[in-house]
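protien #1 (seq + structre)
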Amino acid sequence: MDKFLIRNQGPNQDSPYASTADSSQPQTKLRRVEHSLEALPGDPGLRRSIFDYNPNEQDYIRRAYLQKGPCQPANHSFPQTRISGKLRRFNPSWFVTYPSWLEYSVEKDAAYCLYCYLFKPHNEAGGGDSFTTEGFRNWKRRDKLEIHVGGPSSAHNKAREKAENLLKQKQSSQTALSRQSDRSRVEYRTRLYASIESIRYLLRQGLAFRGHDESCEARNQGNFKELLRYLSNNSDEVKSKILKNAPENHKLTSPDIQKDIVRACAMEVSNAILEELGDSCFALLVDESRDVSTKEQMAIVLRYVDKRGRVVERFFGLIHITDTNALTLLAAIEAMLAKHGLSLSHLRGQGYDGASNMRGQFNGLKTLILKQNQSAFYIHCFAHQLQLALVAVAKHHSQIELLFSIVSNISNVVGASAKRRDVLREKHATKILEALQSGEVITGKGLNQELALKRPGDTRWSSHYHALANLTLMYSSIIEVLRIIETSAVAEKRWEALSLLVLMQTFEFVFCVHLMRDILGLTNELSQALQRRDQDIVNAMKLVQL
């Protein structure tokens, strides 16, 4: 919590994270700085000059880099370079000797100085540009690092003093709180904890924060404010300090405050994952898809063995990408890994779908990563491969392809309206009740559940099996519904219902349904086994043998 209080600053302070109630900080500036901080590259070799940024934003960017610390990739396989006839490389022990300023660029295989990059003025004598723009690569001359640090009045030490002064400026929330009374401090922390707990709950449940109307007159102000109101109704102490009882400029409920707390939660979760991963190797699971706003998003998941020997998968990030070609995806992955101090040299596995841009033999993402790290083996999801194989086999045989086409048409005709689906459920419930009374079926937990017609899909695992299984159980009820449609629907629907009635009552259709249901039942067991978290390849191969 102290980290959050340091990074978040009060409404009267000059900060991009200040409350929106502070009239001295325009909304446009807040959005611009917020975007800049999110887009900051982690690799020092990819950064542009600090003086290329807007002068009003430079201190915010400097503070963000200082709080994050120097880029020091752990357990990276540093490449060797021939210098004076000998192979030499960057020594990772230098990170221990110079922990506060020494940085390493994976992209350029060069060392940089964080302090000098942030604070060294233009064209200042001393220190050169080797540690700021060009990068230091003469691994033979370790003494150059000491020379760079220099004496008390060196350019490096002047930059270090400026960095310390920036972090010590009287702008942190702790400094502001120390000047307030004890009562104000308690009230602030109460409001802050209430907002944080509400946001943590909404994040865990995956619920939306804001409502359509958040005005005071609205009966429902959205999940966030309604949850705060619920907390206040269950605690008089909280109720006296939040919402209407809080200062108008210090409620800690604005959208910018919500986003700031969400970012703080994301950083803490990422740090917890990195701490759990430690120095271990890991695998990468990647998939991309369009969101509701039609933006292409790439999800990244880390798979590794934790310290207790368990295989875990952790969602690590969501990246917006402009296109889906392999080079763009690789650049986005490398940027995210560098941002968190991870390296592709520790990658031991890749898991993607079967799209050409992912598993292409020549220019796919899999191939590009294998060129950098031959130990990053590619694995295509076995359950996905099984589904693709079943679809390919079904389409290869004309009679089986016709069977699933008829099943899809049955789902379209019978499930075309809510009224027909209700009639189907009533017919099936009546038959189940009659079967229970006659003793044909038994009762028990999970038995005789309400069923519905399912449509077979090429990309939905086991959908073909479940479609045939439900069709078999509801066969007689479907026949009755089709007869009702034949006599009461419009002419077009009557002809469709009549043709389906004729096809469904043929021997070939019934035989194919039972045959494919039994065959797909075996593959369904294999598919379920392949989706288990604790399944291994040896047991899966045994299930393949019928």
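ok now protien #2
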Amino acid sequence: MPAFAIAAAASTSVALTSSLVSSSHPCITCHPRTTFPSNQLSTTSAYNLATFRVRAMAETLSTPNLDHKLSISGKRQALISLSDKTDLCTLGAGLQELGFTIVSTGGTASALESSGVAVTKVEELTSFPEMLDGRVKTLHPSIHGGILAKRDQKHHMEALNSHGIGTFDVVVVNLYPFYDKVSSSSGISFEDGIENIDIGGPAMIRAAAKNHEDVLVVVDSNDYPALLEYLKGGQDDQQFRRRLAWKAFQHVASYDSAVSEWLWKQTGGDKFPLSLTVPFSLKSSLRYGENPHQKAAFYIDKSLAEVNAGGIATAIQHHGKEMSYNNYLDADAAWNCVCEFKKPTCVVVKHTNPCGVASRDDIIEAYRLAVKADPVSAFGGIVAFNVEVDEALAKDIREFRSPTDGETRMFYEIVVAPKYSKKGLEVLRGKSKTLRILEASKNNKGKLSLRQVGGGWLAQEADDLTPEDIKFNVVSEKAPQENELNDAQFAWLCVKHVKSNAIVIAKNNCMLGMGSGQPNRLESLRIAMRKAGEEVKGAALASDAFFPFAWNDAVEEACKSGVGVIAEPGGSMRDADAVDCCNKYGVSLVFTNVRHFRH
């Protein structure tokens, strides 16, 4: 979760931190993710587990430990139990300087003690040892009573007093690293996954968040400076408390969603469970949405299925102006398209439609051909490559002139590629201060695709099919030559990424023209043929869906224009007319039996 700015400016927070902690302290916990065994106890503790005898619960509750009525007597207690101990010593020292008595568990207590912070162990408070291999440590009335008691309710405070239970003013907890464990590339057994499900932590977080009017709950180390500043100032800002409580519940909700997703996968269930929770984490606030009057933000999908799964959301931006709402949409479309091709390929996108696609062994030639397909649309578009951008390619991107006049230097919003050479990146940065340069990883196959409609979400499997996954069945009298079939496969792969109704005309692994987004297929065909011009003769034509009519319609117009082969899904009640029409004009027709609608 992103940290939110709750209190003072960063400089104030830094100053506060430096004033609370000695520069010479030997705290190992200043380094991120320092861990300790959950059952490790300091030898300096006055509490000796070796001589401790487990008593019956009834006896424990009937003989409360009256030495720990700390908050009731006016002193303040903070409960700290952390898996991720980032900046723990800073927090502990700061709370101690502010007069807090710190109560802690196992490894957290040991880490605090090693940094010179005085600690009361949880078991000293509960008069009950950690048990069941650490599964039960804080699930006790002496802990949860002290968190949940409402200070303005007399009977709550009387109940605590009668049992010798002190209140907690601050609860700082984060959870077992379940997400990191189950998403690790090394894998994890089912049993280990279960043991990494935190129980006590979420219970304390939820309890403190529920009672946030009296208890400050913190789950993110980025909020430690704001917490200390708030306590130091003796403030009573309920909005601050509510923000912390919101963040706490959100933290637990995201955690539970990961557990739920992982367990569903262990059951062998399909991709569409009866209930689905998708955890989003704010990556950035955007200047605006599709239009300037719309506010917008960009979130990363933190589902386990998206871990190391590639895509534009996790791309590294090396240079340029901040990404906009439309930039993300266009970059995603370009990247998804270019990653489909095996040969070195360049894709140019405008308004999420590929307006130029070319594959060549020479990537510079591919780039120039992709721009040439529609140079007017390419200007101000997004350029994507599926190979490294080296110095030579970067220079061509920087200096290439528009094919329309041979003078205007091509302008782009974004360049996206899997990697860049050092010199290539340096050259591209010199093209424009605003040019966004993205380095992305290829999307994994098999992802779930989500799309919002009013009041709900549509979920479907991603359209991952490639020409190698299907058969191009010849249904005409004339069979396509090998080069024609290759062109048909290339066009079919391109048309998959064009908005319906979609038509693509291609030859020699190069898009010549495309028609997109028209309410009728005939108009899309005419747009594509106009862009292709005379090069349409002998080219391949691909349609994202079947042709409902052939005679005096799209199929016959395509045949008359001189196309060599048509690839379409088939499935129309008038398929026979399409076959007859192609036979009349000597055009090859192949059915793919796969539709590629894109709305």
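Residues 286 and 297 are 5 Å apart (CA to CA).
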